């Protein structure tokens, strides 16, 4: 019997999968067939619930996700996954593409999937470059102010937090800011605390 297998993921524990889960369940997936990863980056090779979802797929089943980037960060990883689906005789349905099924077992479906995967990676890279460019410009402006030590603004820290939540390694983000991991964690904690106090008040 053909079955729908659902998968949702968020990169940090603070994020919620409620919206993803609601959309997937509305698409016809049973709650027992929905697998959820919390606090797992798409850049990681090991995603426990994703692995379980894939293992549950048999010939004729369809994997249901909300957005293509739930599968991974790179085009290569997505194409490798498409090959794995083909070997299992399983299909893929991406809900943010109008609810249409992408049949990766056909030449046309494989081509569409390849294009989708490339676009998803490009979108992630553009977003990353935009944030890093903003950080670089603010840093350069800070260096021109009388030669005083550079001050990392809260805005830069918020941009860095968004990068980390999207799956970027903390070490690289902290280095781009010109600070240590421990300094980044301390500033990120302070920013979140102040933000919480403002909203709480």
Describe the protein's architecture and organization.
With 201 residues, the protein is of the alpha/beta class. The protein is built from seven helices and five strands. It has a five-stranded mixed beta sheet with strand order 2-1-3-4-5, sandwiched between helices. Helix 1 (18-26) links the parallel strand 1 (4-9) and strand 2. Helix 3 (75-88) runs antiparallel to helix 4 (107-143) and helix 4 packs antiparallel against helix 5. The longest helix has 37 residues, at 107-143. It is elongated and about 60 Å long.
Short description:
With 201 residues, this protein is an alpha/beta fold.
Radius of gyration: 20 Å
What form results from the Cα inertia axes? Answer: elongated
| Helix amount | 40-55%
Q: How would you characterize the largest beta sheet?
A: 5 strands, mixed
Strand portion: 5-15%
Number of strands: 5
Give the rounded overall mean pLDDT.
78
């Amino acid at each position: 019997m053909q079955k729908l297998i659902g998968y949702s993921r968020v990169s940090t524990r603070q994020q919620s999968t409620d919206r993803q889960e609601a959309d997937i369940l509305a698409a016809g997936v049973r709650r027992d067939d929905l697998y959820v990863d919390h606090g797992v980056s798409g850049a990681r090779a090991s995603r426990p619930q994703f692995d379980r979802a894939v293992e549950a797929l048999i010939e004729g089943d369809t994997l249901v996700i909300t957005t293509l980037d739930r599968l991974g960060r790179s085009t290569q990883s997505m194409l490798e996954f498409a090959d794995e689906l083909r070997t299992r005789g399983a299909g893929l349905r991406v809900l943010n593409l109008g609810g249409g099924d992408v049949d990766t077992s056909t030449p046309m479906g494989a081509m569409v999937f390849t294009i989708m995967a490339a676009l998803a990676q490009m979108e992630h890279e553009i977003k990353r470059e935009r944030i890093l460019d903003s950080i670089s410009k603010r840093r350069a402006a800070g260096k021109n102010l009388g030669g005083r030590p550079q001050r990392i603004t809260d805005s830069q820290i918020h941009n860095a937090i968004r990068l980390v939540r999207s799956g970027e390694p903390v070490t690289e983000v902290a280095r781009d800011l010109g600070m240590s991991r421990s300094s980044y964690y301390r500033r990120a904690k302070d920013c979140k605390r102040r933000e919480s106090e403002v909203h709480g008040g």
